[in-house]
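Lecture 7 notes: from sequence to structure.

We start with a single chain of 591 residues. Read the sequence below before looking at the structure.
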Amino acid sequence: MPQAAMLRRGLLAWVSRVGGALVLLCSSLSLLYVMTCSPPHSDDPPLSHALPRAGPNHPSLGGTGAGAPGAGGARAGAAQSGGPPAVHSYQALLQEREEQHRLHISSLKKQIAQLKEALQERSQQLKGVQESLKRAAGGPAAGQEAGAGSQAGGLGDSRGARGQQADLQEFLRSQLSKAEVSAGARLPSEYAVVPFEGFSLQRVYQLETGLTRHPEEKPVRKDKREELGEVLETALHSLNSPSSQQDGRSAAENGQTGKVYTPSDFIEGITRTEKDKGTLYELTFRGESGNEFRRLVLFRPFGPLMKVKNEKVNTANVPINIIVPLSRRTDKFKHFMHNFREVCVRQDGRVHLTVVYFGNEQMSEVRSTLENTSREVHFKNFTLLQLDEEFSRGRGLDVGARAWKGGNVLLFFCDVDIYFTADFLNTCRLNTQPGKKVFYPVLFSQYNPTLIYGSQEHVPPVEQQLVIKKDTGFWRDFGFGMTCQYRSDFINIGGFDIDIKGWGGEDVHLYRKYLHSNLLVVRAPSRGLFHLWHEKHCADELPPDQYRMCMQSKAMNEASHGQLGMLLFRHEIEAHLRKQKQQQNPNAKKS
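Now the structure, written as tokens:
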């Protein structure tokens, strides 16, 4: 029923557009007719002025001049017998012009009649479509109130309307089947992925910012605001419809009325446009309990907005196994555990932590940090694995994933310099599905706080630094290390390439495996996942090309485009400030 209603609204809008176009066309033809029938404008004198006029004082046309009565009679006879040759040529020209105008007027009248006939035929067809939609929705059709003759004529129209409606529905279904909505498509590389954009009630989160747009901003363009507003309105209408609220059961059987959803229940949404298929929208709303959510999937196949899915998602029994590979860096691990204790233990409570430590150095400090956390917040859901070998991030994550023996668990591959919120953990749960979907969030990477805030003394606590702005960081769309997927999908895809040593490379390799599979890869910016800035060292032993790439990466992570420019021209800025100060001091002394 909601789909039929949306289809009816879309067709009615199409009817109004076609009717308006035909009316505009008729008006244009009428205006052309008026302009054509009017006398042509010319700089030459009018034809009536060029022709000799008969009158009492015009001798050439038989007028009786005062001094020549005899001559006037002779000219009158000449006029009666045909007149001079100039008069005949003017009269012939007038007759030719008049005949041309009559033919042109006749042609225009015929075209107008044909257009009126076509307009009436199209109106009857559209009327038949409206009646068929009303019958499909259970409403009274205009044909039911007409006489027997009208019913006979309307039957053919309704059949044509049903055919048109079937064609439209077939087109919409074909566009939906081509798009990556319910299943993934095999992609050649990471460059073929169409990422999502995120949005909330007041903000959009976009990966392509350039030099003018911001990573988080209000939708500036009017069409974008109207688009997202229509999507949210359609989603709320679907959620509050009786069929959606009852979910197959009556309110009387439940003993309570269904929840009425409002815009304040909207948490977040993601959207992307495939240029040859349409636009996909996925919206998440708070459910009737803390761990229950409503997920709506809408699709716009360059036509009316379609509802694809409306489902309840309960995450109460969806634990997450967070796997962290580690080698030394115990100070960073203490900061990580501080955030873990607040978010995962006190707020979420459905998390297991697996730490894979490489080597023996500082191993006792890591164990002590985990034991202290366990005593302070009564947290027992952690596993510490030790590997006495060279550090390999891919190897550590692979060992941690395969060490789990509690069934098919949701895995979150994480690093020690990552900060996340409780909302992100729910986003991780909502965007993954075993055998169908994996989640590759785009995290917000922080710039050097010392450069952002001017000096180390002015740097606020970490929680206050996590602001998504152009001058505080950027969407790290070239990183694929943080990912959420079920253990079964990770095992079936083949896991990491454990031959890759150190940092880097293993994440892209796994990402490409998923792209080559039939799993749907959700790639979207996440406003609850942050990469904390840390100094990057470029070893002198690196070859020149790798050292240059390392320094470029270091510069990109250091500050924004504008801030780097200010650093480059800081000497000129300081000289300008000194001159301004010197100019102000003499004026102050004189005053």
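The chain is about 50% helix and 15% strand. Keep this in mind for problem set 3.
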